[in-house]
Write a structure and sequence with these properties.
1118 residues, 19 helices, 22-stranded antiparallel barrel, Phage tail protein beta-alpha-beta fold, elongated, mainly beta, five-stranded mixed β-sheet
Length: 1118
């Protein structure tokens, strides 16, 4: 009962409470101790341990004091078991007691205690002092690096600036050993120079040993799932304009669908899938349409630091704050996310503040993009006039009207002869500039760390007036005290998207080149041409509308606060609690002034309705919390990792839409100045979702060779029927590290050989909140007998259950010659059952349809990556050359559909138009292109020859003859990466390819055959057209006025090879930056979409053009 009361309490929390919660958390962090060193020195130790190992004793001292201990495990093991009774001693006194008479000593350096063997007694001899600085390969100082004289325990650790000073006995050829967690150890011979500076390299193998899942951290050597991890350095090398396109460039299974309509529009959200689509939509009628619902039902789940974020938030994320991104793909990797995991999970991990003194960092990204109009091939003025005359545009049906038609033609010809040849495509576009500034402060010690960052990005698109601005401010504090750790991360974000006042780009491709946007005096004209015989009366000038004071923008303001607390009572056990609050406020404004050409056809009685204003505010608030218990234990040859987690979330969202008309006054861009509301009622929507779930996970490894794991999540959601709200999601997996077998121990060729197999069941997300609930709306009009009626709006289904995907995944990983050559392969099968689709009801029921679990979709395929370090110098700054390639193959099939989908297929066929219909048929792909088979143009009469279902030939197009003619899914797609590094210079190039798919060439249909002769068209309209009997051509004659409908003639192979990104980066040498007190300077230049070769030639970027990008990046740390 207590749980049931908690949910309604959540809804009562207002925005004020959210802000108070954030303020209280920040105050807690601000008033935490700033320097823990003095506190550590004064810590009082209490121990009572019998028959304990020295390692266990040191662990307890570390927990009670806050010091960090460094030691050789073998040294502590040799000490055997000890009995310790300590009550109220300082750390030094406690260590003196514990290390007495066992041949060990200790050294205290800042907040680090190094336990070592007692120094050997050297005979009295001359001593030397060696000094230096230890940095990483980017020049950042490394505090806490251990430096030992080889063969002894004599050594020191680097200070907060990475500096050290070590006094050594003058022995023959001394060797210094440098070691640091996460870095490759180095041995440096003393050659007489008293200054030894060392550059340490990251231990990539150690970094890749952990897979971040967002809830539990799993060792990669015992991870049975399929995942791709991308580090911040890989993100930087792969381009800095879009984190979404970067992931596509690095992992082909992360599919970014190209939009022919929206091109490079900065305000358009991309369509993303991982390993194919598994959810259907009944709202799409043609393959040219895009569906928000279909996109959301198939897109992966995005997790930032443990909590779900929206696709929009992911697109706007500040890349400089990202430490890594992990793409989880199969059930073993995503089952812990239960009902949200079947489409894959993208886990983003933010950077944590670095240990050390206060650091100031600044990152500047400048991007320039130019419109890519290479796919357009429009006619010039003379060609267009020739086409118009050949198509009979100037031939009047009535002889009496012919002089007027001749006058129009002569006037247009005169414009062309005077040199008028307007290239309309150039007017609404520009060179877009994007500036991204990011400033950060960070620092702290072992106990207390902090960071603050502010970033602002203004992305100006290639269409004039279109832009997207994003401002982010974050504040993070973390505090470690003994066995506890606290962290709070707050983010304030605001975005503003502005659409171009120039309208849709396609209208400029339709305008004729013999028309002028300006008059002889250079003034812009409102109407390009007026005619009572052609063009339906007049042709408005879209450039005129662009100069009006109109508005089309959207704004978002969000506050996100993450609080986490961890407690480690014993070694290997971690108890963590997290809580998240996300509050978002949205609004959209669209204003068209009364002088806009869209109101020109209003009659006098509607003059008061000219001008419109649309206002659409909305807000949402979400609460999430979880408690996690994770235990790791290694005993002998056995390793055990187990975890439990309980999570709960609640969200509420509301949105409204109001439209008013009659803003006739100049600059009346305010809703209250309207004369009236538009006809109809205002619209609104709301959604409430609540979710609760419990997770259990276990992983067992034997002798680092064999490993098994399993997980289960029991989850409940308010989105489903009252009788089926709870459901289990699970996975099991097993693997074998063949390279750890004894018969492979002594060989030097095979570095990694791992086999994996997993199977499990996960659920899908992105569905309507009230799909299982019966909903009503009020009836228009007056009430009856003092009461008001309601109308059934949505029919509920108490038996509506979860859409589940069963996934089988098998793979292997191979590495040769210390993993210089790596091969990863995964094959998978995804079967989605109980699809949420519409079921049509008899007309007598009074309702069309309701949601039910009917349908089945499968995705089967494989993915493979090969990375080769062709040349790798021993010198860390020497020459390095690597080549990587990847391939992805997926086969999608609809296995079963509902009666409503079958009914909708028939309905769509009966409404068939010029574009192929969007049909779901059993045995075919969701992306199948349906059209009537065609044998081409009959040379004898210029008519198209169709093949009917029974195989006979016909000149008549029949919708019922549509059959599968192609599939937009490629047979294979992938990337090719080349990386060259020499000293501080890195060159990286990424190529992309797709092969084996088809597409429907809409340009040939809409701008060659079905062209309106009054509009401009593709230049191919003039050539390869049927004119005389015997012509063997591809297109019908100009005088053939029949409408061309979906035909296999326009289904073409869509093979693509493109250069997606080239980057050149340079890290300034530390000897240069040290002179100016700068820690690191990183400079890079990038170019994206430099060239694209495609087997299909059609116009791309119809509503918004595509672009080519060039960028410059500068990062400096002070």
């Amino acid at each position: 009962m207590k749980k049931n009361r908690w949910f309604p309490h959540l809804w009562g929390i207002k925005m004020k409470n959210v802000l108070l919660f954030c303020q209280a958390t920040l105050l807690l962090c601000f008033f935490s101790p700033g320097s823990m060193m003095a506190q550590n020195q004064k810590s009082v130790i209490h121990l009572s341990m019998k028959n304990a190992t020295l390692k266990e004793v040191i662990w307890e001292i570390e927990k009670q004091s806050g010091f960090v201990f460094a030691y050789n495990a073998d040294d502590l093991l040799k000490a055997g078991k000890v009995n310790v009774e300590i009550d109220g001693k300082t750390v030094r006194e406690a260590l003196d007691i514990c290390l007495k008479n066992i041949g060990l000593s200790y050294v205290v350096q800042d907040n680090i205690i190094v336990i070592k063997q007692k120094e050997k007694e050297f005979p009295e001899m001359k001593k030397i002092t060696v000094r230096g600085k230890v940095v990483d390969k980017e020049g950042i100082p490394l505090p806490g690096v251990t430096i030992l004289l080889k063969g002894t325990t004599l050594g020191v650790v680097t200070d907060i600036d990475g500096k050290y000073s070590l006094t050594l006995p003058e022995v023959d050829m001394p060797v210094l050993v440098f070691s640091f967690v996460g870095m490759k150890g180095q041995e440096v011979k003393y050659t007489g120079k008293n200054e030894i500076n060392v550059v340490m390299e990251e231990d990539v193998k150690a970094m890749e040993e952990v897979v971040v899942t967002g809830i539990f951290r799993k060792a990669k050597e015992s991870f049975t799932g399929a995942a791709t991890m991308v580090t911040d350095k890989e993100l930087a090398m792969a381009g800095n304009r879009s984190i979404v396109s970067t992931l596509r460039n690095l992992d082909p299974s992360f599919n970014l669908s190209e939009s022919l309509n929206f091109g490079s529009d900065p305000n358009h959200l991309p369509t993303i899938t991982v390993r194919g689509m598994s959810s259907l939509s009944s709202e799409i009628r043609s393959v040219t349409e895009e569906s928000t619902n279909l996109r959301e039902a198939n897109q992966p789940l995005f997790i930032l630091d443990g909590f779900e974020i929206s696709l929009e938030r992911f697109v706007d994320i500040d890349e400089s704050t990202v430490a890594s991104i992990t793409i989880l793909k199969d059930a073993s990797a995503t089952a812990i996310y239960g009902s949200r995991g079947s489409n894959g999970v993208v886990v983003i991990t933010s950077k944590v503040p670095e240990l050390g003194k206060l650091r100031l960092s600044y990152t500047l990204n400048l991007n320039m993009e130019t419109p890519d109009l290479s796919s357009y091939n429009l006619m010039n003025a003379y060609e267009k006039l020739e086409f118009e005359k050949a198509s009979g545009l100037y031939t009047a049906a009535n002889v009496a009207d012919q002089p007027a038609f001749n006058e129009i033609y002569n006037r247009r010809k005169m414009y062309a002869e005077r040199g008028v040849n307007t290239y309309w495509l150039k007017y609404p576009v520009r060179t877009g500039i994007t500036a991204n500034h990011s400033v950060g402060l960070s620092g702290g010690d072992q106990s207390f760390r902090y960071s603050a960052r502010v970033s602002y990005r203004l992305n100006k698109g290639v269409m004039k007036g279109s832009e997207r601005g994003a401002f982010n401010a974050s504040l993070l504090f973390s505090y470690n005290f003994k066995k506890f750790s606290f962290k709070n991360d707050m983010l304030i974000s605001t975005t503003k998207g502005t659409n171009s006042p120039y309208g849709g780009y396609s209208q400029y491709g339709n305008l004729n080149p013999y028309l002028r946007p300006y008059d002889d005096d250079g003034n812009i004209v409102k109407i390009l041409e007026t005619s009572n015989f052609l063009n339906g009366g007049s042709i408005p000038n879209p450039l005129y509308d662009a100069l009006l004071a109109q508005k089309d923008e959207s704004k978002n303001f969000s506050i996100i606060d993450n609080l986490s607390i961890e407690y480690s009572p014993i070694p290997g056990l971690r108890i963590a609690g997290r809580f998240n609050v996300t509050s978002i406020h949205r609004r959209g404004d669209k204003y068209l002034p009364a002088d806009h050409t869209s109101f020109d056809n209003y009659t006098e009685d509607r003059y008061g309705e000219k001008g419109s204003y649309s206002y659409s505010p909305g807000e949402s608030i979400k609460y999430e919390g979880d408690i996690t218990l994770h235990y790791n234990k290694e005993f002998g040859r056995h390793m055990l990792s187990a975890g439990l987690s309980y999570s709960i979330s609640s969200s509420k969202e509301e949105s409204y839409a109001i439209k008013a008309v009659g803003l006739t006054a100049p600059n009346a861009d305010y809703l209250g100045m309207a004369n009236q509301y538009a006809s109809g009622r205002p619209s609104s929507s709301d959604s409430k979702n609540r979710r609760v779930g419990g997770i259990g996970m276990i992983n067992y490894t034997y002798d680092h060779r064999f490993f098994v794991d399993g997980s289960i999540k029991i989850e409940g959601s308010s989105q489903f029927g009252a009788d089926r709200r709870m459901a289990p999601f699970w996975s099991v997996g097993a693997g074998w590290n063949v390279n750890n077998e004894k018969f492979l121990k002594d060989q030097q060729i095979l570095s990694t050989f791992r086999l994996r197999l997993s199977y499990g069941s996960t659920g899908s997300q992105g569905f309507n909140s009230y799909q299982a609930v019966t909903t009503y709306k009020s009836v228009d009009g007056k009430g009856y007998n003092g009461s008001y009626g309601v109308l059934l709006m949505g029919l509920g289904n108490p038996d509506l259950g979860w859409q589940k995907t069963n996934q089988l995944n098998g793979g292997f990983e191979l590495g040769f010659l210390e993993n210089r050559f790596r091969l990863n392969f995964d094959a998978y099968s995804k079967i989605t059952n109980d699809l949420l689709t519409d079921i049509y009801l008899p007309t007598a029921s009074g309702f069309e349809s309701y949601k039910a679990n009917v349908g089945k979709v499968s995705n089967m395929g494989y993915e493979v990556t090969l990375n080769c370090a062709i040349f790798k110098s021993i010198d860390p700054k020497g020459f390095f050359l690597s080549i990587g390639t990847s391939a992805f193959h997926n086969v999608n099939k609809v296995k079963k559909i509902s009666n409503s989908i079958a009914f909708l297929n028939d309905k769509i066929l009966s409404e068939a138009g010029v574009n192929p219909s969007f049909l779901y048929k059993e045995g075919e792909s969701m992306n199948t292109i349906y059209a009537v088979k065609s044998l081409g143009i009959d040379p004898g009469n210029g008519k198209e020859i169709f093949v009917t279902r029974d195989g006979s030939l016909s000149y008549v197009w029949d919708a019922n003859d549509q059959v599968p003619c192609g599939n937009t899914d490629p047979m294979i797609s992938g990337n090719l990466n080349v990386n060259v590094t020499y000293k501080n210079i890195t060159l990286n190039a990424i190529f992309g390819y797709t092969y084996g798919g088809q597409n429907y060439n809409y340009t040939l249909v809409g701008k060659v055959e079905n062209i309106d002769p009054a509009k401009n068209a593709d230049r191919r309209v003039l050539y390869d057209r049927w004119r005389n009997p015997g012509d063997i051509v591809s297109y019908k004659g100009v005088d053939n006025k029949t409408t061309t409908k979906a035909s296999s003639r326009f289904v073409m192979d869509d093979n693509i090879f493109e250069l997606r990104n080239v980057s050149l980066s340079y890290v300034l040498p530390t000897e240069w930056t040290d002179k100016f007190g700068i820690g690191r300077v990183f400079i890079s230049a990038n170019t994206e979409d430099l060239f694209r070769i495609s087997s299909i030639k059609q116009e791309r970027g119809l509503a918004y053009p595509f672009s080519r990008k060039f960028s410059f990046s500068l990062t400096a740390t002070f």
